[in-house]
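Researcher: Predict the fold of Integral membrane protein.
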Amino acid sequence: MSTTPSGAGDRLVQVGAIVFFIGALATLVTVAPLFLGTDPFPSAAYAVCMLMGLGFLIAAAGVVRSVWKSSPKRAATR
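Model: Structure tokens for Integral membrane protein follow.
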């Protein structure tokens, strides 16, 4: 177990990474039939691939939140 305190946006970065990897896996699964010569998945399956971008945005929001909370100006006012 880690003894370092977690930052302001650490949980957002973790959740964003999980959502990103789910989207990346969905992208691999939906693109595979195109290379294998089988029938492609319905259009709704490609919407799951958008989780990759959503996960990136969630993780980026966590990084921005961590930077915002640990900025010198904000630290001086606490």
